[in-house]
User: Fold these one by one.
Assistant:
Number 1:
Amino acid sequence: MTFFNKLARDEAGATAIEYGLIAALIAVAAITAMGALGNQLSTTFNQVKTEMAGPAAT
């Protein structure tokens, strides 16, 4: 029973969970930003490719 009382009063686990949640939030934000950046880069490179090909490609 003493083990469960110590476990209930221990706040180190709560701190670890908070850090884990913060890390997960940062990861989701980074993935979202990188996805949007990837789409924008793809569009930019396709426009450059079209411009470099010139009128012969159309």
Number 2:
Amino acid sequence: MKTGIIGGAGYTAGELLRLLVNHPHIDIAFVHSNSQAGKPVHHVHQDLAGDIALAFTNQLFLDEVDLIFLCMGHGQSQLFLEKNAPLPPQLKVIDLSHDFRLKRPGHSFVYGLPELNKSSIQGSQYIANPGCFATAIQLALLPLAAQQVLNNEVHVHAITGSTGAGQAPGATTHFSWRNNNVSVYKAFQHQHLGEIGQSIQQLQTGFERAINFIPVRGNFSRGIMASVYTECDWTTEEATQYYQDYYHDHPFVLVSDTNPDLKQVVNTNKALLYVEKHDNKLLIISMIDNLLKGASGQAVQNMNLIFGWDETTALKLKSIGF
């Protein structure tokens, strides 16, 4: 299959390229970037020297590929699709932005969380890849919603690495501010809350309790650790069994019997979950790499499902990215 990447100079595109150059069924036809057009791809994604001979292009070759990945900023994917409509009828699209994650009239994107929508993803044409925080938090909550026991407020404290803010430098992303520092942002109003609530209601219709989410900027490059708790009658043993049962057929989600740490998932497409009971509250620890299971790794996982390949193809080895 031939694929193209739109918005190829950023962190998620770099991770995507690292995965695709090792994918046995994929030929990367073009990497699009207006800002880097003409430069060799490995001049921007320097660890790919010797792995990819392409240069960035500002031209589009949509008729020549089977699939495109949209790795642009939020709001840009919708503009791109409007500008280039109609798309070739055979072309499949995986969008890594926020633009199509929420259901609304006028678009036919499937929400691409395999642990929730695997059967819908298989054979689909348009996929909205989930957000990174949203992935970690949903994986912590889906087994509860599936058993109809998510009946109280949910409290989430989650910390993310600096790559979650993208490659463009900013006041809260440059090294001298981020290093040896930590801060809260978008408390109770993070943009991923909408897709989290949408997914919970898909399993537990009528769920209307608050999800109290405190996002935190961490002083490390990559990874997300979410600590989630809510009132629940399950014991630790019951919760562990329910979580293991729910994720039995999902190869990248592991339910740990020991309290995990972030380094266990960084540079992998794994999600690591751990549950324990404290009085009437169930605590769920959820950990992912924000650039892989939270973005590009999940996009490749969705691609594998679309085309009927083994879900884990090109995703078992650790990434060599930063």
